[in-house]
From TrEMBL:
GO terms for molecular function: metal ion binding; molybdopterin molybdotransferase activity. CDD domains: MoeA (cd00887). It catalyses: adenylyl-molybdopterin + molybdate = Mo-molybdopterin + AMP + H(+). It comes from Gordonia desulfuricans. Pathway: Cofactor biosynthesis; molybdopterin biosynthesis. Catalyzes the insertion of molybdate into adenylated molybdopterin with the concomitant release of AMP. Pfam families: MoCF_biosynth, MoeA_C, MoeA_N. This is Molybdopterin molybdenumtransferase.
Length: 417
């Protein structure tokens, strides 16, 4: 049997290096940045006010106290967005709003609360009257200096960054319209099985609702890819191959579910084990793990001669999602220049655990932080049909091949989902 690590390498080798694409910043959300982004401008771009109040020369207010306020004439009004250059003459103040450019000559801003003025709607305008200051500001007070956030020429975002909301915000603030990112890969899931029907159809005896398609497409999207799913029913090899060709289209990865173990009607395995006829090259193997033992991986040759990676996952729902997590997710993320994004931690086991001989087990668990450190509770039986416990789990307990039992209180490796 193949080890988990060996099969991880096989899957990783199916993917090419990240494919560069230039996207509008908003469309690049969630993508991996391929090049350093250098700030074309400084932020802030000009000295500006951090408060609604008055721009002053600090020296003009030296000695101001509530008992001995200093009164100055208000010469101009500077709202945010005023674009002409305004100067502040000695012995005067300008009314200024948050984000408005500081006038030449001003070296402090006094918030309106520290004066006798009011900016409340309906209050008298003070822009051509006088204002009384109760305190002496220090020079530089409430001024946001040009370049204090980032200076033009500095690296704003390093290659490898993932473009989440804050990174999109920074790029937009720098006036950057487009970025070079790794193309998000298109993942198509094709589920097989004559027992499967779609939601909305009444179930006959022996039928079940198809669930792996939606689940694996969601997992692909959670991994940062573009995921969609198709459903194929008959256990018929020519029909399956035709569906595969039609589905492959512009896919970067095809994932099938079901039809790969030892049954009499394993359509995926049958259809893809004869590369002489089809040009496909898919290898079916057993991996020493539980769940997820029957696996297949290789390359599909499309009718237009394109080679598309294909990964054939086992049909049991828990097996297919755990296989996605262990094999496909890391490879997809690397191929999209995204960090692995999963935390591996050590946690204290709260109940005894058993694991099959010669298999690396990925057991569902619930991990919590306690004052004594992380602890993990194994949940659900090992059977690969227990979707309910999978939905409850927030972690996978990674039990090494050589371990067959772990006692409560011992430490285990955990992948936090
Ligand atoms: N004689 C043997 N039998 C089995 C072996 C084996 O080595 N020898 N391996 C077992 C293991 S382990 C697994 S895992 C499964 C894998 O089976 P397949 O990949 O061939 O999948 P199916 O037989 O088509 O389905 C298995 C199970 O999962 C349900 N299923 C399948 N697709 C879906 C779907 N899209 N949505 C919801 N549920 C699905 C299906 O109804 C079956 O119950 O084989 C064991 N058997
Ligand atoms: O690999 Mo199967 O996943 O044990 O149920």
């Amino acid at each position: 049997m193949r080890s988990v690590a060996e099969h991880q390498q096989t899957i990783a080798a199916l993917f090419a290096a990240p494919d560069p694409v230039r996207l509008a910043v908003a469309d690049a959300h969630g993508s991996g940045l391929l090049d350093h982004v250098v700030a074309p401008i400084s932020l802030p771009g000009f000295d500006n006010s951090a408060m609604d109040g008055f721009a002053v020369r600090a020296a003009d207010l030296a000695g101001a106290t509530p008992d001995a306020p200093v009164r100055l004439p208000v010469a101009a009004d500077i709202p945010a967005g005023r674009t002409d250059a305004v100067a502040l003459a000695p012995g005067t103040a300008h009314r200024i709003m948050t984000g408005a450019p500081l006038p030449d000559g001003a070296d402090a801003v006094v918030p309106v609360e520290d004066t006798d003025a009011s900016f409340a709607p309906g209050a008298d305008s003070v822009s051509s009257g006088t204002v009384s200051f109760h305190a002496a500001p220090t020079a530089g007070r409430h001024i946001r200096r040009a370049g204090s956030d980032i200076t033009a020429g500095e690296v704003a975002l390093a290659a490898g960054a993932t473009l989440g909301a804050p990174q999109i915000g920074l790029l937009a603030a720098l006036g950057i319209a487009e970025v070079n990112v790794a193309r998000r890969l298109r993942v198509v899931v094709l589920s097989t099985g004559s027992e499967l029907v779609a939601a909305g159809t009444p179930l006959q005896h022996g039928q079940i609702y198809e669930s792996n398609g939606a689940m694996l497409a969601a997992a692909a999207r959670e991994a940062g890819a573009l995921g969609r799913h198709e459903h194929f029913v008959p256990d018929d090899v020519p029909q399956f191959l035709a569906k595969l060709d039609a589905t492959a289209g512009d896919a970067d990865l095809i994932i099938t579910s079901g039809g790969v173990s030892a049954g009499a009607f394993e359509v995926v395995k049958e259809a893809l084990t004869d590369p002489a006829d089809t040009g496909h090259a898919v290898e079916f193997v057993k991996v020493a793990m539980q769940p997820g033992m029957p696996q297949g991986a290789g390359v599909l040759l499309t009718p237009v001669g394109r080679r598309v990676p294909i990964i054939t996952l086992p049909g049991n729902p828990v097996s297919s999602l755990v296989s996605f997590e262990v094999f496909i997710r890391p490879a997809l993320r690397t191929a999209m220049a995204l960090p692995d994004g999963r935390r591996r931690v050590t946690a204290r086991l709260t109940a005894d655990l058993r694991s099959p001989v010669n298999k690396r087990q990925f057991m569902r668990g619930v991990i919590t932080e306690t004052p004594d450190g992380a602890q993990v509770v194994p949940i659900g039986p090992p059977g690969s049909h227990h979707l309910r416990f999978l939905a409850e789990a927030n972690a996978l307990i990674d039990v090494p091949v050589e371990v067959t039992a772990v006692a409560a209180g011992e430490s285990v490796d955990v992948i936090v989902l």
